[in-house]
Queue: 2 jobs
Job 1
Amino acid sequence: MDVWRINLAEKSLQVEAVPSGWEKLGGRGLTARILLDEVRATCYPLGSENKLIFAPGLLSGHRLSSCDRLSVGSKSPLTGGIKEANAGGTTAIDLSRLGIKVLILENKISNGLWVLHLSMEGARFDSVDDLIGVGAYESTRLLLDRYGSRVSIALIGPSGELKLNSAGILNLDKDRVPSRIAARGGLGAVMGSKGLKAIVIDASGTTGPSLLYPEEFRQAKQILTNALLDHPQSMTYRDFGTAAMAQLCNRLGGLPTDGFSKGSTSQIEEISGEHMRELMLERGGESNPTHACMPGCVIRCSNIYGGKDGRPIVAPLEYETIGLLGTNLRIHDLDIVAQLNWEANDIGVDSIELGAALGVAAQAGILDLGDIDRVFELIDDVRKGTPLGRIIGNGATTTGNVFGVERVPSVKGQAMSAYDPRAIKGTGVTYATSPQGADHTAGLTIRAKVNQLDPKGQADLSRMAQINMAGYDTLGACIFAGFGFSTVPESIQQLLHAIYGWISEANILQQLGKQTLQMERKFNTLAGFTKAQDRLPDWMTKEALPPTESVFDVAEEDLDSVFNW
Amino acid sequence: MDVWRINLAEKSLQVEAVPSGWEKLGGRGLTARILLDEVRATCYPLGSENKLIFAPGLLSGHRLSSCDRLSVGSKSPLTGGIKEANAGGTTAIDLSRLGIKVLILENKISNGLWVLHLSMEGARFDSVDDLIGVGAYESTRLLLDRYGSRVSIALIGPSGELKLNSAGILNLDKDRVPSRIAARGGLGAVMGSKGLKAIVIDASGTTGPSLLYPEEFRQAKQILTNALLDHPQSMTYRDFGTAAMAQLCNRLGGLPTDGFSKGSTSQIEEISGEHMRELMLERGGESNPTHACMPGCVIRCSNIYGGKDGRPIVAPLEYETIGLLGTNLRIHDLDIVAQLNWEANDIGVDSIELGAALGVAAQAGILDLGDIDRVFELIDDVRKGTPLGRIIGNGATTTGNVFGVERVPSVKGQAMSAYDPRAIKGTGVTYATSPQGADHTAGLTIRAKVNQLDPKGQADLSRMAQINMAGYDTLGACIFAGFGFSTVPESIQQLLHAIYGWISEANILQQLGKQTLQMERKFNTLAGFTKAQDRLPDWMTKEALPPTESVFDVAEEDLDSVFNW
């Protein structure tokens, strides 16, 4: 495996041996290492000094169930700090097949819009000015026509070209739909600032990534697969997808409702995972409640949400989108939420950041909650980059700043996802302290068997979750792979040995996680972050959230203790 | 002298004795002390937890030439750090006459727009919903009609009501024109967030502030006045006002031109102080190149800029406005700049922040440089609070953020004034390191007899200037009072003794200055600032500025040494 380093200004590729200190890292941990080694933390995120890094996880590339994730890293234009967002799909697999341990994009192309094409022949650049402003779905279709239907693609929508800070990077799922988004933190804006519309990866002719001990790998894989298949949560996610969260969060009083002013809705039945599953089964056609985003995944939490005619509206429809673009905006019609999700994907924006920004805009009187037509209109503004669209497209914090709205649900400039931290306090600790800004994937605590409203002990819970998640993100493992790994933790050591021959300790997951978090914290410190930024917004410590009437009251000393281990 | 503490939510006044630790402070130093003592540094600046503080300087209230300035302090919604902006006019005098050492506005009024009326009878609140959205000039006329022509007024324009972060607080000059603006850092937005349109101060019936030793005061006053009258710079400012800077800055290559892309203009003659003086003398009528903003000022650097008919277009027209709304936008017609300045004042925005934001908007293609009609159109957008107007009205940093523009001339979120730091590097050090964000009034170094392009020694220069200015701001002395005090420094000790009976050391100015800066730095540290924020924007360290072709190259260690004394 090599480092592929692209100088965009020169349109050149340099293939380098993996330097010492990078070998035993992958995914999120590797992006953090490289950012710390090579990017000045105070640089302008959309300037030529920033780098955009694509790193498959340590376990990626082998079609291990739920372990083929791709990490994308950069300095975030949204938070001003370090950023890693990861996604499933096929990109990590095909990068690995080409022998790419990490792809580093440096500098930027000064003019026009380009495709970076990677294959066994190396890198080449094709002008795609005809794709300027073209949505992600249509762009994907055209690129697959042009480059062949078996390539992997990482691409941006119009929002990335506009350098909006809610722009993500879309990756194709196993059916070549651009649905797996490294969504958070404005990575799409970084890609747009560099003049790239897409990275096309053609792994044809490759034999697949090497395995040191194939038989050991086969055994370990079987153990993991069995553990996943046996875990009761796997079944829940297979049946209901992440939307299984809707009922749970509503019950806990942590479902963002009406602009984070309530934690539950009486219309929960209409947007629940159970209802969504029924709809899909009833509608048939291409609808499918159980769908894998990565080849080989046995959980298959993804879905294809079809309309009344059975034709797909969007795939997948996920809980966080239902929360932020649905209940948060007083919209309880899954068909509408699915259409909004399609729009967000096509524009290439993070549906969480978009929904949160619209909720803030509603407080400023830009829209009425529940006004579906107006929401579509405003999303069209984002697509076109009108001044109002740019405000919203730059996210919830910018929207609040421009309109003078206090009640912005964000930390370090990044919007919270669909878990109100006043009712799910461990996740609130994660929002407050994660180097990534507010992000449930950095350490979700909702399934812990504790009183979610009790401020005590939540920092310990979050610490553990953040360490484990940073570890999984470094392995390239999906959050749900944890269901399996947690019952057969030794399989991580076995897999790392089978693939690389590494002898690791039993707590290798936590070692990787801690190391990653420490690097991320160091980057943020250099960027000018202090514990003053490791806080939830003031208003959430004061405004009680119905129906639990809880405020966020985890002690500041607890927040400051999260990274003391 | 007392502390007048207003609880806006309760519309109540509490008159308190001056607590220990506050007695020997005034102006900027006192606002810093109170913010540090009473305001949580991480609070939401436009929320009820923030306070708005009006503090006359230690020497204010006695009609000492150039020493009647008012400091307004708060946590800034523009920078997120501490903020003090000061202004001349009559507000500080009348607050002092009422025996108010400092006015502290706490909490906020939840509904409507209000006047806070202060007099010997205490405080009362009058609803002024009829003034919602009314410009500062018309509002002043109506308020003077309502409250009598001899009151002092501190008020906001529509921008403050809209909570735009470039909104300032206007004060009346001795002719009751709302022209003395505590402009920087969004203090007008804080006042708007609190539900106040204006503070009306009626000092009738008062006998004036007490003096411990009147005869000693008279003597010291005479010494200061003579020193001011004798200083050659006083004459320059009397004749040309601050616009004297235009030729000087152009010669040094530090005049912001065409969006901070050049440091000089071939059209300098059209916008110079000399030309402006000629125009005013030639036009006659109410035009007047020599005008005092505060009663008793012997420098009279202010002016009344009249149009062809001799009627005032704006008063005064100052250098920073000519730089930012003029040459920065490729506008070289003083009549036009004067009209733009009137608009800015009427809306109540900082003309520096507005001009810088428009320069950034030009880079985003929102206007062409030199397109005067478009500039007026956009300023009207700000007045109306359209989405585009709100972007621009929130300042240069927000404009750059929303449009993805790198070349933003700002530090800590606040726009630079009309001294390009690449050509006047000591002032660049001040921009970078001042706790106030980029601000020439925090420590201008342009008159130092050094090579302004040499990076060496500039930190020392800035340190001295920042200490002295923080001292003057605490005394309530105008920057130009320094011309006098620098030749008779002992007069500061004499005046403090004559007024208060204090025995102070020869370096009292520097003592006050250091103390003030230390408090401000402490507040910012608590608010989450580190040395990473004590930097100029990256692009100014890389992009050479014609005609000197200089970049900002003061060493980071030098920047970090500014507060080591």
Job 2
Amino acid sequence: MSTFIQKGGFTDLVATTRVRLARNVRGYTYRGLGLGEYREIADKVWSALQTAPAIASDFAMTEVRAGSQEAAALVEKHLISPDLARKGGFLIASSDGGAAIMIGEEDHIRLQVLGSGLCPKECMETARRLAGLLEGQLQMDYDEKLGYLTACPSNLGTGLRASVMLHLPVLAANSGLSQMMSWAGRQGFTVRGAYGEGSKATGAFFQLSNQITLGLSEDAIIDRLIDAATGVIEAEKKAREQLRTRDEIGLSDQVCRAAGILRTARRIDTAEALECLSYVLIGLQMGYLRGVPSQDIMAAEQAVRPVLLGGTAGERDVKRATFLRAVTENLEVLD
Amino acid sequence: MSTFIQKGGFTDLVATTRVRLARNVRGYTYRGLGLGEYREIADKVWSALQTAPAIASDFAMTEVRAGSQEAAALVEKHLISPDLARKGGFLIASSDGGAAIMIGEEDHIRLQVLGSGLCPKECMETARRLAGLLEGQLQMDYDEKLGYLTACPSNLGTGLRASVMLHLPVLAANSGLSQMMSWAGRQGFTVRGAYGEGSKATGAFFQLSNQITLGLSEDAIIDRLIDAATGVIEAEKKAREQLRTRDEIGLSDQVCRAAGILRTARRIDTAEALECLSYVLIGLQMGYLRGVPSQDIMAAEQAVRPVLLGGTAGERDVKRATFLRAVTENLEVLD
């Protein structure tokens, strides 16, 4: 089994990196395609992957049934978009979820590569390799001057959307975030809250992604994303140090209590779990805690969400607590 | 150094046992005595103790200055009454605080012996030994028919007040407490909240003490107290098992979280500390937790009170948290 999930640095502040390429197959309209046509395209994509058997053997194709519970779980895992879950279509994904090809989204084909930590270059490289396999067999809509044609002009050109999911609890808690958002905007990037705008239940995760897909090369977009992400990471770190200077006891109290709750609770709801995980991530980065890799806490932040846990609300709260005790078993508070 | 603090059983539900004897010295009026007269009586008590040099060597005499901070701290340690702290007087106490003689309370002399756990017999024995020393040298007001004469008729006869401090959080949280109070009343005992009636900040400690001092021998009062205390302990244990049956997860969640908070918090106020300690005591008795003796948690319940910690509110919250982390360092959550 191959590994498609890429690995990068800054794992205590960067949850994931995602690179997505939009492609449309020549000969199909952009609107009003039915499930039959999407199935045709999916079959063609599947065939194209078979030209590299070592890669293809790790992929599986599944039909995404519109509005199903399975579709909702794929959304929470970030394997498909909410749009595809609603409309239905097809997903061709690697077994580790690191590479996923959606068929039936706004564009015929959306190819996504996922990484842990800050790794846009690595994700881009894998995405290019997979796109190359597809383009070897399928003719895509491409214009000499404009580049790849897409359903929405905002994706025109490279069809590339590269993003990093950043954990910015301290910037989010003060005015730092809006400042940082306008700074990112001037660099051609947008920052938006994961799972809805900045509610407490999001665990303070924010997605930084490129707004511009046209007039810049893929490599230039990737380089700029790395620069912007690094700037935001530094701003968050600085805000944390300012908080430490201002109220060291208050900060360490919240971090250590969060660790205590995750290690002991017998039931916990999503909002409290996400808040505690957020403080634990701060604590690991700032040296109040140790013993568990940040990536495991980042992964837990995904895994505790309701749809992935299943069962009634009461059952989920117990399952969530049991899971979190296991994840934080080796979490140590430093004195 | 001798040990005057007696030891008893049921330490997971009984904080302390206290036996108090009221005595008045012949030749002094019961009301309107000045500090000079109390000093005379204190000196006589002090001399009487010297007839047993091995015991006397462990005692010290201090003047209680009316309304002082030191006096307030002695009240929180249960070494003197709030009344003596307000009026001023003298305290002759063993170095471990297990035996204390107040001069200047409602009665001229109040002799108190303290024990950990349920030990009224042991406390009574020590109190009798000390009272015997005093009575060997001082003539007390005594009536052949009535027994010892006291300022208030409620103490007439034996002058004995015997009490146990019980931890009854589950009875207190439901209707069980009022039922139990009327049951105890019918047996000639009263139940009252420690530090004011039943507020959450008391940590659910209740004092069970005899109402009747006349017409019963000391031994009969002590035996009845043991019976009443045992009955209340059984009622609390039964209420806990009913709670376990009704909501095992909820109960274990609160117990385990309390342990987690005490082991990690960097600052904690009195009310939260007492509530957490209360749940930890439940957890130790019910088998959810282990590793720290209940007596240590009972003692912590005293030690975290504001007057004993000193400093500003902010400083106290930090001191309290540091102290509680040390106390609960070896507290283990059982799965």
